[in-house]
Amino acid sequence: GEESLIFTSYRFENKAFFYSAPLKSAHQVFDKISISATKLSFAHWGSWNRVFGSCHGLLLVGEYGYKTFVLNPVTGEVREVPRWPSTFDGWKWPDYFTVYAFGYDSIGDDYKLVIVDFDGHRYLYAETFTNIYSLKTGTWKSVESPFYWHA
Known about the structure:
The chain is mostly beta strands. It has one helix spanning 26-30, and strands at 4-12, 15-22, 38-40, 50-55, 58-62, 68-71, 78-81, 96-105, 110-119, 126-134, 139-143, 148-149. The protein is built from one helix and twelve strands, in the order ββαββββββββββ. The termini are far apart. InterPro entries: F-box-assoc_dom_typ3, F-box-assoc_interact_dom, SCF_F-box_component.
């Protein structure tokens, strides 16, 4: 298939919209020449308003601290990631912070999502809680956090 440039408009009515334009026309985007783009629709998957990361064309999107999805903008496939086990369940942001990472594990041939939570009240030096989600198995694994958050 043809390579595309994916871009988004954030928080229009608290939603994110994705658009796709052929990559061969990308220079036109950066030269401020208008090009036509196709709006990509994932509305049937509920609300989300953030892009947390990307890997090999897959996007990690969601609502901060709530629902998270992995989506393939080319095929339109969307997979909801189940809520991770958190020490801060029941807390509301900004009482805790979450850092997201999304990447590919070449040894296990698997895409993984890493979530690191920490207490927002102890921002300067806080214990972290780390969970890893496997897209292949659909399961979360809690791991001992090797570090403290230090701002």
